[in-house]
Design brief:
Layout (H helix, E strand, L loop, with lengths): L11 E7 L5 E7 L6 E2 L14 H15 L5 E2 L2 E2 L8
Antiparallel strand pairs: 1-2, 2-3, 4-5
Length: 86
């Protein structure tokens, strides 16, 4: 689920970056496209105030795992996933 476009599906690319306040911002785009969309629930809080490269990579992997895990099913339909779910 994204803030700008709602649910997006298909082959996506994930970009994460550290925000000025030390959070981890997550954005996705369709593979090969330029437009980035903010993942709902982003930014997430990092463990430390100024995350280093190792912590950033670990946060990226946790976000990726959350976004690639199927959503709950309601009335036979899979619900969108966002970072608030993870």
């Amino acid at each position: 689920m994204t803030e700008e476009a709602g649910a997006v599906t298909g082959e996506l690319e994930l970009l994460t970056r550290v925000t000025p306040d030390g959070g981890i911002e997550a954005m996705v785009r369709y593979a090969g496209a330029q437009d980035l969309y903010t993942v709902s629930g982003s930014p997430v809080h990092a463990v430390s105030e100024r995350p280093d490269q190792v912590e950033h990579r670990a946060a990226h992997e946790r976000i990726l795992e959350t976004l690639t895990t199927s959503g709950r099913v309601e009335s036979g339909n899979e619900m969108p996933v966002d970072l608030l779910d993870g």
